[in-house]
Amino acid sequence: MLGFLAHRALGMLGALFVASLVVFIVLDILPGDPALLMLGIDATPEALAALRAEMGLDLSAIERYLGWIGGVLRADFGTSLTYDVPVITLIQDRLSVTLPLAIMSFILAVVISLPLGLFAATRQNRPGDYMTMGFSQIGLAIPNFWFGILLILVFAIQLQWVSAGGFPGWEEGWLAALGALMLPSIALAMSEAAILTRMVRASALDCYREDYVRTARAKGLGERAVLWRHVLRNMMIPVLTLMGLQFAFLVAGAVIVENVFYLPGLGRLLLQAIFQRDLVVVQNVILLLAALVVLVNFTVDVLAAWIDPRPKVLR
Amino acid sequence: MSLASHMTPDANGIGARIRRYPNLLLGLGLTGVIVGMGLLAALYTPHPTDGVSIASRLQGPSLTHWFGTDMFGRDLLSMMMKGAQNALIMGCVAVGIGLIFGVPAGMLAALRPGPAGDFLMRGADLVFAFPAILTAVLIAALYGPGVVNAILAVGIFNIAVFARVTRGAVQNVAARPFVRAAQALGQSPVAIAWYHILPNAAGVILVQASIQFAVAILAEASLSYVGLGVQPPDPSWGKMLRDAQTLMFTHPMQAIQPGVAIMLAVLAFNLLGDGLRDMLDPRSRPREG
User: Fold this and answer.
1) Which residues does A237 contact at the CB level (< 8 Å), separation at least 6?
2) How far apart are CA A212 and CA A231, in angstroms?
3) pLDDT digit string, tens, across residues A1-24
4) β-bridge partners, B69
């Protein structure tokens, strides 16, 4: 297990390194002058030179990369040009919205998809199965931002149960804050739940065809015990891996959904930074999102290895 | 149904085969409607979509404006038709980029295993950590928001998807006896790849193409919604929803039609892909029993 952990941790660090390299190359080396981009074509040469010096653009590419990564490792992400505050402060503020949002939708997606997928699998090719799969097709097809708009229409405008958007902040009490995240996390969770339901069903059906299930039934185990003791555990391995991969899409979805509900999260920060040409913010937020994805995939890999009931030699 | 009726020539005709797969049938029908709408929009829309008419703004459905008008007085049906056209262009180009670069890369990785193939596949893994929307954000950060950059971002993501799928499919086909027979006959590797392997892997790639088409339509709508895709005054379903959201308290119906259009278009290509898979993959054919 230790060797496996070390191997995966190394892979994770490698992935983080490559991701940082990609972000750096795209934003820093490809043609285009970041200083000119940020100040616009009316900028005076003096202002441009000053900004280039401040951003370290007169250094070599390797020096700039090392300077950036060195800063990131010391939790120094530079200063936002439009907000004039350290990027780390911005990120901390915004992460306190995006992280709970992502976690809530993730939990919601799992809570919906596990029972639904198992329900469909145990009723393969019967009406319950067809209905579940039909719902998942529709769930896949509805764009998360439109679903968000529909939720606002029904629950904020028609029923007036919640506000149409915005975030009160955690200082207002966690109940109010979680309440503001409720509709966004439902909007974000739906397509994830749809994909996971299909995966859970397929994975469970594969398990039901295995010899160990036949053996378990032959020795007189009830269907419930077969499900809990044999199918569920084996089934979770591919499902967990997919959940990890889906997390990247959850993060990307959060960028969009935060804009539907005017949530002051990382996604909204990122988009505003693009329209304000605040490249320092863009560069660091994207790296952070990529790091989040890599970290979740690492955790999921370790979890999958931990619950895998097969002896190690058979893997 | 008796055995004899299965044996009639018609039962094996393409029409009869299609009829056996409800997903495929529904997918084909819906795709037909969307494609028809997009093609028609290239030639004709009931009203122009680039004129502003304050006098006729925010009207409900009527005989002149079947779906009503938006806040600039533009005909919503015409906007939806042009939106279909833009969504289809996005799908064609983004899937095209993926096919043109991804399929050869996947074939190369499968048929010539080695450092180059491994490198290609690691690159594909990396792209998966950056969903198309984040790539689009990166590109927009550098070159500004716009539809070309959005298409490029989704296209790059598709290259990775098709490289992976093609590699898997080609590895399967390359192990089959007829490939070894062709090698024994002295055919060149390129001829074998082109005449023997690609046609046999094409089914899987076609299924993925249909699904990626749906993904591209969804991505275009999302990016246009946040302002990184189709730019005004070009109509896009995603942007229509953005405009509708500002009118939600007074004109909630404006937020319905574009969303339904996106949903049906995505559903159409997903069903088409699933249906094709049912038809081409003999293992997933238990539904008749």
Assistant:
1) A304, A307, A308
2) 9
3) 678 788 888 878 888 888 888 888
4) B75
